[in-house]
Specification:
mainly alpha; Cytochrome p450; 3 domains; two-stranded antiparallel ribbon; two-stranded antiparallel sheet
């Protein structure tokens, strides 16, 4: 950009080169405007070209452009949806950015829609470029239905079905005994601070829950869920992903250039980019860290891990890279599923 300054009897040419910190907000604003324009035009075009049944009733949209983005319930949302159900019925409609969201608000409607019509309703709204960047597409619970999903699900089912899970009973008994001893020690300790005792109790329950899974799948021991790397990473992942799994929480994934913002925008300029990069790092820690530890332990003589057993079988059969990825995905899904279940269960009692 060239600026001309007139002063006194002459003129002076001043060349100004915009910095990266100046260009990024301008580029982002341009992207947002283009997205909004495309959104409006395509919506108007689609409404003219297609005939659709009306959506179910729902709360009025607070914004024409954003819909209910950022306005859907996030703190104990089941209470809010229960109250909304009294006004709007079993099906509640929201629009968040590009996403049309339908909240199913009763067991009867859930069975009718998700079970009886599973062929057309039971897929997952993931699998875009941002999911590939954050490695969400490695998680069996989040990936769209595909051949890769079927193979990973088969590996998961073969090793965690009720008949196969019998081999994990000794680990469950051992960890339960440790948990009961910890409870006994806690009950005998002086109760000077009820809050600290409550925190210790939650830590013991979390250590039991995650300890069983980590020992069964990876053959690794943990002493505390609050002080060791893998449980801490699982807990951090829960806090990062928690809101995204709620209705409307992942609508930003429908923005076509969201993965570019996450990849190229400096962390200091964008909380969104920082959170997505941290999610990617945490996913990698959970997927690669315990897997590498389990393989190392298996090679050194520790034969107590499911991952080590599956890797040994894979090497005998030729060492398929695809099978290695399925084993990694199975292990990280089991660990993440355990911490998510624990987190949601404790939310209901807090």
């Amino acid at each position: 950009m060239t600026m001309t300054s007139f002063g006194g009897f002459g003129s002076q040419q001043l060349s100004v080169h915009p910095s990266l910190s100046t260009l990024i907000p301008i580029s982002f604003a341009a992207f947002v405007l283009c997205y909004i324009a495309f959104n409006l035009v395509s919506r108007r075009f689609l409404r003219r070209r297609t005939k659709r049944f009306p959506y179910p009733p729902g709360p009025p949209s607070p914004s024409f452009f954003l819909g209910h983005y950022g306005k859907t319930p996030t703190r104990k949302p089941w209470f809010d949806y229960m109250e909304m159900g009294k006004m709007y019925g079993e099906l509640i409609y929201f629009r968040s950015l590009w996403d049309n969201i339908l909240v199913i608000n009763s067991a009867q409607a859930t069975n009718a829609i998700m079970e009886r019509q599973a062929r057309i309703t039971s897929d997952r709204p993931f699998g875009n470029a941002l999911d590939r960047f954050t490695h969400w597409d490695d998680q069996i619970g989040l990936v769209v239905y595909s051949e890769a999903w079927r193979y990973t699900r088969r590996t998961f089912h073969q090793n965690f079905r009720s008949e196969a899970a019998v081999k994990f009973h000794p680990v469950q008994i051992e960890k339960t005994h440790n948990f009961l001893r910890s409870l006994l020690e806690l009950s005998e300790s002086p109760c000077s601070d009820i809050q600290s005792h409550g925190d210790e109790l939650i830590n013991y329950i979390s250590t039991l829950s995650q300890g069983i899974m980590i020992k069964s799948v990876y053959g690794l021991e943990i002493q505390s869920a609050t002080n060791e790397d893998f449980p801490k990473a699982a807990k951090e992942l829960t806090s990062l992903v928690d809101r995204s799994l709620l209705p409307g929480g992942s609508a930003y994934r429908s923005v076509p250039f969201a993965h570019l913002l996450a990849r190229f925008v400096p962390d200091a300029l964008s909380e969104f980019a920082r959170a997505q990069k941290r999610m990617r790092e945490t996913m990698d820690i959970l997927r690669e860290g315990p897997f590498e530890e389990a393989v190392k332990a298996w090679k050194s003589g520790n034969r107590s891990s499911l991952v080590g057993e599956l890797m040994s079988q894979n090497e005998i059969q030729g060492g398929s890279v695809e099978e290695v990825n399925r084993i990694k995905n199975m292990g990280s899904a089991a660990l993440a599923g355990r911490i998510f279940t624990f987190s949601y269960n404790t939310q209901t009692i807090h």
